[in-house]
Every structure is written in C-alpha cells, then in structure tokens.
Write a structure and sequence with these properties.
The protein is mainly α. The protein has eight helices and no strands. One of its GO terms (molecular function) is Wnt-protein binding.
Length: 148
C-alpha cells in the first residue's frame, strides 16, 4: 500500500512537471527517473514506520545533502541521539513497566492500569524516535533544517 501511494506521488509530480515544461523533469531520462523512484520507494527512513514525504521532497533532500563532513557528522550525531532515546523508550515499555507491574507491593488496580498505559505510550515514543533517527540517517534533516 505504501509503495502504491509513493508511485502515485511520483507519477503525479512527473505529470505536473511535463505539463508545465519543467526542465528538471523533461530532461530527466527514464533510467535516472526510475533509479530516483527506487531510492524514494525503498528508502529505509519511511518504508518501516513512516512518516510520509513526497517525491518532490525526496529529490529536494538529495540536492541539499552534499558531501560535506560537518553536515554528515551533524546528521549522524542527531540520528544516534534519537536512536538512543528510542532504545530507552522500548526498554522502558517492554521491561521496566512489566517489572513495576509484577511487583507485589504495587498490586493496586489503578497503578496497574497506569503502568499498562505507560507501556503503550512509550512503545509509541519508540516508533516516533526511531522513525526520526532513520530520517536523519538518510539525510532528510537537511530539508527540515536547511542551512542558513
């Protein structure tokens, strides 16, 4: 389903580019367009958890991310921090909440309900932070935080 949505996004952008005689898309050969679409469709930053970004934003991210060491280091550092927070969230969601729930002195009904809701929330935080880490690792942070 995600691949179908990405194919519609890329074909819509391609049709709009041909209708407006945009030189970016009219000069793009079939093989180059196909390889760009494969990179967009199978990008590990969005295939697993999302979030959605259009083909145009993907092409813009490829143009903005250059081979500079400082931007690469910054993106990888931000990705590592987000991945560390994601790991902390999944550890709390899976292990620490079950330890709190299994303790005998905290066997009240409302505390158990609170612990279960915390487990659900922190597994959602894991998905969010892991998705952010994947986007930053592929260089998508350059689109959301452009250089001044």
């Amino acid at each position: 389903m995600i691949l179908a949505m990405k194919a519609v996004s890329a074909s819509t952008l391609r049709a709009q580019g041909q209708a407006s005689n945009d030189p970016t898309f009219t000069s793009m050969s079939f093989l180059r367009h196909y390889m760009s679409w494969c990179g967009y469709a199978f990008s590990p930053g969005s295939v697993i958890f999302g979030p959605w970004f259009s083909f145009d934003q993907y092409l813009q991210a490829n143009k903005l991310t250059g081979p500079s060491f400082s931007s690469l280091f910054r993106d990888l550092l931000q990705s590592a921090v987000s991945c560390f927070i994601a790991c902390a969230c999944i550890i709390y969601s899976t292990y620490l909440s079950s330890i709190i729930q299994a303790s005998y002195f905290l066997s009240f009904r409302w505390i158990n309900a609170y612990v279960q809701s915390q487990s659900f929330r922190f597994s959602h935080y894991f998905v969010g932070f892991f998705s952010q880490a994947m986007h930053q690792a592929i260089g998508f942070a350059a689109v959301t935080n452009p250089k001044s």
